[in-house]
Amino acid sequence: MFDFRPHLGINQRGHLTMGGADLVELAEKFGTPLYVYDEQRIRERYREFRDAFASYGDVLICYACKANTSLAVLSILRDEGAGADIVSEGELYLALKAGIPAEKIIFTGNNKTDRELERAVEAGVIINLDSLHELERLIEIVEARKAEARVSFRVNPEVSPETHPHLATGLRESKFGIHEEAVLRAYERALACSYLDVAGIHMHIGSQITSTEPYVEATRRLFDIMGRLRRELGLELEFADLGGGVGIRYSAEQPYITPAQLAGALLPLIEEKLAEHSLPKPRLLLEPGRYIVGDAGVLLARVYTVKTTPYRKFAGCDAGFNLLLRPAMYGSHHEVVVANKAALPAEEEVTIAGNLCESGDLLAKHRRLPRIEKGDVLAILDAGAYGFVMSSQYNSRPRCAEVLVNRGMAELIRYAEDFKDLLEKQLVPERLR
Ligand SMILES: Cc1ncc(COP(=O)(O)O)c(C=O)c1O
Fold it and tell me: From 3.20.20.70, 3.30.70.100, 2.40.37.10, 3.40.630.10, which CATH number describes the 8-38+294-423 domain?
């Protein structure tokens, strides 16, 4: 449990700690449910990724904001020198608010609105185009405004990583990216527009990937396409973006890869391909999200109801898929620790039930845990990525607070919503009052 999560531990009171902070104390101080993140762990994971690829030279890590857009988290990564991969005008707003420089921001997304394209042009970020149609729409905008834009294209490398079907994005039939047969046309058309600086190429094959093979296959395709662009259009691109997707260890049994293994598999291949196609060395962009913030976050929930049926024992807690959607959406596994009994042995099998009126609202099934009682604090691990960002107010439950721990010190980084937030932006027509 703790060997690959070195930021977690157990203190003398037998409580689970993260980044030196007692999680049971945090649950008491800030209330539950509560998201808690460890700043030093985020920095450590970012540096691990950066250092793994450092020997290449010119590398920019564009943190995939969608994994966790809390302003404090974005600010940590800005502080580390990261850029950002964004997919919406909202993420653009947040990344700029966090002080990430526009030139380090790449705007991907398969269905940008006209307004999003306009905002991206105004902000001066790299616009990563997903289709010929999107290119035509951008050309209309830049020509009308006589404004320049730096662009790249997302290509679909047609590989299938072994991951949840909803997390594979580079499949032949996927909605993402431009297929190879249309890539040359796309670049040719973009080059013909004098307002466009045609700077890069991009791929992103999926998320929670646990082997290097699909990356190797896709990177080979990407650099072969770059070779064709040089040969057929005389185009030498400034950057190649390999996307994100490196998985994390949600359990000890699950296969995994490290950034160092990924770099070990890709960097020699890239050198080989650059030589084969006589290409100048492009800047390398990488877009990890989950790897950087995933295991740096836990969701704390308090047990209120313990219920034994003829079939199962349930621990009913004060969080549900309104706060952590992954188990309900992908059938994802998250380890659960009873934070106030972290040193006690497992005694019984329990299913952790959320508090929503949905039978699919089970945060963890059939777990061996110490004897569960009312008041216990459950720590749902590895909830830092695709956790709070996917939360909702379903069942009219206001969203919870977020806390950032730094070397044992805890600070609130987001207030919990209250009932007024349930009314926020709502209007009742006069006749119904
Ligand atoms: C374009 C793009 N880049 C990067 C990522 C980050 O993926 P992950 O969090 O798995 O690293 C995603 C996530 O789906 C993505 O769509």
Answer: 2.40.37.10
User: pLDDT (tens digit, 9 = 90+) per residue, 188-234?
Assistant: 999 999 999 999 999 999 999 999 999 999 999 999 999 999 999 99
* Cα 306 to middle of ligand 1, angstroms: 38
- Cβ(109) to ligand 1 under 6 A? no
290 lines ligand 1 (CB under 6 A): yes
Q: How many CA atoms lie within 13 A of 214 on its CB side?
A: 27
Does any ligand 1 atom lie closer than 6 A to the CB of residue 279? no
pLDDT per position as a tens digit, 127-138? 999 999 999 999
Please tell me the distance between residue 310's alpha carbon and the centre of ligand 1 in angstroms: 42
CA-to-CA dists, residue 190 to 139, 327, 375, angstroms: 8, 42, 61
pTM of the model: 0.96
Query: What is the 8-class DSSP label of residue 372?
Result: P
Tokens 């290097």 -> residue: 212
- pLDDT confidence of residue 132: 96
CATH class of 108-288: alpha beta
**Tokens found for residue 267:** 């960097």
In the annotation, is 400 catalytic? no
| Domain layout of the chain by residue ranges | 8-38+294-423, 108-288
